[in-house]
Design brief:
The structure holds two protein chains of two kinds.
Chain A lengths: L2 E4 L3 E5 L4 E3 L1 E4 L6 E6 L5 E7 L5 E3 L5 E5 L4 E6 L8 E8 L10 E3 L3 E6 L1
Parallel strand pairs in A: 2-12
Antiparallel strand pairs in A: 1-4, 3-9, 5-6, 5-10, 7-8, 8-9, 10-11, 10-12
Chain B lengths: L4 E3 L2 E4 L5 E6 L6 E7 L6 E7 L2 E4 L8 E4 L6 E5 L8 E8 L12 E2 L3 E5 L1
Parallel strand pairs in B: 2-11
Antiparallel strand pairs in B: 1-3, 3-8, 4-5, 4-9, 5-6, 7-8, 9-10, 9-11
Classes of the chains: A mainly beta, B mainly beta.
Chain lengths: ~120, ~120
C-alpha cells in the first residue's frame, strides 16, 4: 500500500524567508508524487508533479520539490515566502493500481503554511 | 476555460436527513471523481466515473451514499440518511482521461461543498 506522511501540520515563516514543507512517502512501486495547494474557500490546485523524469521538479509560483528515493522524501521548498503563499499544502502519491495515471490520488493530512509580515 | 462547478457551496442538515450535491466537470473531461475531506485530513476518494460508468467505488459507504453520472457529464452525490460523521467538504474533480496506463492526467478540483450534520 502507498501512503504519504507530512511531517508538520503547521509551519509558520516570515515573509521573504525560505519555506520548507516536508513529505515522506511509502511505496512498493515507482510512485508519482504531487504537491497540491488549497486556499480558503477555493479548489485544490496542482503546484507540481514528479512522474519519474527529472528528480528536481519546478512548479508554479516559485515552488520546487526534489524526489529523493534513498530518503523516500519529496519536500517542497520556496526561496522566499510571500503573503499570498499562506494556504494548506498537500503531498500526494498516486495509486499504482492505476498504472501510473492519476486514477487514484492518496493525500497526506496537509500542512498549513502561515506567513507573517 | 470554465472550471469544475459544484453546488451548493454550503449545506446544514440534521442527522438522518437526506442531502444531494451536484457537480459539473470541465467540458470534455471523461473522468469525474468525488472526494470526502474531513476537517484536518486530506481528501479521500469516494468514487470515480469514466464517462457514465463506475471505475472505483471501493471506499464509498454504499449503505448510505450513492452517486450517478447518467449522461456522462454532470454528477450527483447523495447521502441518505446522513450521520454526524458525514460532516466534511465534498470535492468534485475531473480529468481528461484517467484510465490505467493512459499516463498522467491532471485532476482539476471544484471549490467543494461544505456539509454540516447536526
Amino acid at each position: 500500500a502507498q501512503s504519504v506522511t507530512q511531517l508538520d501540520s503547521h509551519v509558520s515563516v516570515s515573509e521573504g524567508t525560505p519555506v520548507l514543507l516536508r513529505c515522506n512517502y511509502s511505496s512498493s512501486y515507482s510512485p508519482s508524487l504531487f504537491w497540491y495547494v488549497q486556499h480558503p474557500n477555493k479548489g485544490l490546485q496542482l503546484l507540481l508533479k514528479y512522474t519519474s523524469a527529472a528528480t528536481l521538479v519546478k512548479g508554479i509560483n516559485g515552488f520546487e520539490a526534489e524526489f529523493k528515493k534513498s530518503e523516500t522524501s519529496f519536500h517542497l521548498t520556496k526561496p522566499s515566502a510571500h503573503m499570498s503563499d499562506a494556504a494548506e499544502y498537500f503531498c500526494v502519491v498516486s495509486d499504482p493500481n492505476y498504472g501510473g495515471s492519476q486514477g487514484n490520488l492518496i493525500f497526506g493530512k496537509g500542512t498549513k503554511l502561515s506567513v507573517k509580515p | 476555460e470554465a472550471g469544475v462547478a459544484q453546488s451548493p457551496r454550503y449545506k446544514i442538515i440534521e442527522k438522518r436527513q437526506s442531502v444531494a450535491f451536484w457537480c459539473n466537470p470541465i467540458s470534455g473531461h471523461a473522468t469525474l471523481y468525488w472526494y470526502q475531506q474531513i476537517l484536518g485530513q486530506g481528501p479521500k476518494l469516494l468514487i470515480q466515473f469514466q464517462n457514465n460508468g463506475v471505475v472505483d467505488d471501493s471506499q464509498l459507504p454504499k449503505d448510505r451514499f450513492s452517486a450517478e453520472r447518467l449522461k456522462g457529464v454532470d454528477s450527483t452525490l447523495k447521502i441518505q440518511p446522513a450521520k454526524l460523521e458525514d460532516s466534511a467538504v465534498y470535492l468534485c474533480a475531473s480529468s481528461l482521461l484517467g484510465l490505467a496506463g493512459a499516463g498522467y492526467n491532471e485532476q482539476f478540483f471544484g471549490p467543494g461543498t461544505r456539509l454540516t450534520v447536526l
